[in-house]
Amino acid sequence: MALVSTPASLEQALPATLDNAEVLRIRNDFPVLDQLVNGRPLVYLDSGATSQNPLSVIEAEQEFYEQRNAAVHRGAHHLAVEATEAFEDARQTVADFIGADYSETIWTSNATEGLNLISYTLSTAGLWAAQGRGDAGLADLALKPGDEIVVTEMEHHANLIPWQELAFRTGATLRYIPIDDAGSLRMDQAGDIIGSRTKVLAFTHASNVLGTINPVRELVALGRAVGALVVLDACQSAPHMVLDVKKLDVDFAVFSGHKMLAPTGIGVLYGKQELLDILPPFLTGGSMITTVTMERAEYLPAPQRFEAGTQRISQAVALAAAANYLTETGLDRIHRWETELGGRMVTGLESIPGIRVLGPAAGGERIGLAAFDVEGVHAHDVGQFLDSRGIAVRVGHHCAQPLHRRLGLTATTRASAYLYNTTDDVDQFLDAVAGVRAYFRA
Predict the structure, then answer these.
(1) Domain at 8-54+330-439, CATH class
(2) In the chain, which residues fall in CATH 3.90.1150.10?
(3) Contact 54, 261 (CB under 8 A)
(4) CB 69: neighbour CB atoms within 10 A?
């Protein structure tokens, strides 16, 4: 399968990274950015929560509804055939985007659903195996009392709560790799925590709060050494850097469309074929069966095995358009640019009195976001102050309460950049943050 990179002929013609002039041209593809907020040009620094959509993505979804809207896999008429082709072509495009095979790429509503799908099917694996419903190897995936699930202390709730519930349903024990005061994983402890009882190892590729890029290969190696299933939350990496699930050798990976220029309501679950072929289904109903009697049903192989009911057809088509947009722009180039913007944010924030930045210090590797605490001012007040100046950021615990609690905080403000942000956006943000404490007389 093709890797996610700019075609060689195009790559030779493009600079190694984006620059402000190219970014300003890119911004013309995003109509929502061309507006005033509170009388000021919008500075959108909340892409870590939801990114904006380029015209090519908007038009791809609109064109589907205008030209080929029909149910997929269900009709022999012209529109149904065209809709099915568009839907499955989109799957191939997204599979290529992450270096996966076509049949290993499952549509979900979002990454959260993908993680719940994995945890739920693992919790029913034992029941299926005991009743002789599963194929050979299914019993080995079943969790039981004494088994362990390992996550990290920096996880988004979506990659924590499903594993808590899996432990509750099976009697397994949930453990976690802690972070240090700087927000880095305690890899010196990871080898003791990931042991012979570990059945699942789940962790984020890049932290949505700290900006930390975790050592995936090292963690995968620890999981492989004990025969654990490895689950990667790629929500903050797939939109921003080259992701090759085969090279990383993870068993499962999830990401959401709305964080990578696509609409809401669409996500992707990658799973190794040999695992998807034996896991029980998650949702059941139409379109994912071969034979149904009044007593039981037989199920299709992946990907249809995990896609019950009417699917997110137009959203899948739009997600493929988003993947193409990122590929044509060049994910390596995007990552370098965002690294520059993220470093500019951290360096600027660290120079402002009363600001505590979470995650790697200036000069450390991180994705293009920075979460910070303003001494004496609540994060929600910081967010409203920035909004009054046309700057959109995220405030709160960012669905990572344990992480904030570990660092002695209840909430932070987070600025997150993407390919349509300029250095001027970052400088306007920093200038505004510098005035927060004086405004609130903190």
Answers:
(1) alpha beta
(2) 8-54+330-439
(3) yes
(4) 14
Which class would CATH give 62-327? alpha beta
Select from 341, 334, 422, 339 the least CA-distant residue to 17.
Answer: 334
**Residue 372 and residue 375: Cα distance in Å, rounded?**
10
pTM of the model: 0.95
Query: Which pLDDT tens digit goes with each residue over 185-244?
Result: 999 999 999 999 999 999 999 999 999 999 999 999 999 999 999 999 999 999 999 999
Residues forming the active site? 399
Amino acid type, 431: D
Position 4 pLDDT exceeds 50 = no
> How many CA atoms are closer than 13 Å to the CA of 32, on its beta-carbon side?
14
Two structure tokens written together for 78: 């012209």
pLDDT in tens, 306-336: 999 999 999 999 999 999 999 999 999 999 9
The Cα 36–Cα 124 span in angstroms is: 51
Selection from 313, 254, 317, 323 nearest residue 282 by Cα: 254
In DSSP terms, 424 is beta-bridged to: none
| SS3 label, residue 217 | helix
For 249-277, what is each residue's pLDDT tens digit? 999 999 999 999 999 999 999 999 999 99
Mean pLDDT of 128-137: 86
Q: Where in the chain is the domain with CATH 3.40.640.10?
A: 62-327
Tokens of 400: 């990572």
Rounded Cα–Cα distance for residues 75 and 397 (Å)? 46
pLDDT of residue 12: 53
pLDDT at 74: 85
Predicted pLDDT of residue 1: 29
Of the candidates 184, 218, 188, which has an alpha carbon nearest to the alpha carbon of residue 201?
218
Cα torsion through 60, 61, 65, 68, rounded to 10: 50
Q: How far apart are CA 9 and CA 328, in angstroms?
A: 11
DSSP state of 361: P
CA dihedral 225, 267, 215, 218 (to 10 degrees): 10
Helices 331-350 & 313-329 angle (0-180, nearest 10): 80
